[in-house]
Amino acid sequence: xxxxxxTNVIDALGMLPGVGPRTAERYAYYLFKSNSKISENIAxxxxxxxxxxxxxxxTFALIDxxxxxxxxxxxxxxxxxxxxxxxxxxxxxxIEDTHAYTGTYHVLGGAISPIDGITPDQLHVKELxxxxxxxxxxxxxxxxNPSVEGESTALLLEKVLHEAKPDLKLTRxxxxxxxxxxxxxxxxxxxxxxxxxxxxx
Length: 201
Hints:
Elements: H1 4-13, H2 21-33, H3 36-47, H4 49-52, E1 53-55, E2 62-64, H5 71-74, E3 79-86, H6 90-96, E4 103-107, H7 125-134, E5 139-142, H8 148-164, E6 169-172, H9 188-196
Parallel strand pairs: 3-4, 3-5, 5-6
Antiparallel strand pairs: 1-2
Helix pairs in contact: 1-2
């Protein structure tokens, strides 16, 4: 029988996505064996997580609790006329790491998924439409994930945004085969996108 304190940590770690019972046990035992300072640092970081982070009221990106709006939105060097729409806040950082985009962002807060109970009215679509005129937006880049849910969400956005602003330029991130992947391992959505987006040599 494991000590209760250790069991509590295993149970808590097991709540994390992708962490099974055995992995949770290994993590908990590692923390017990390691310097107690590591556990204290993790505990301190977790205790300040909810008070130290909030959503930007304009872009719905994650920001520090003492900030009013996202620095990426406030930055005068960013092009407010271009908005990239992503599903989740962490998607922004993947794009930013490329250093190839200078517009602003809009986080939907997920993708349409009837199985998970996520309906269109639960996403930040209405707020996106409001930004079109407020920021004189000329282009919206739809960067939803290449999944069934992401495709459904992209189709909804296309319909809603065209109705709201018919002359708006709507684009999507190019999709296709990633480098190093054999054709036999590619899924149907990826292969279809690769065919549609084929380029001239």
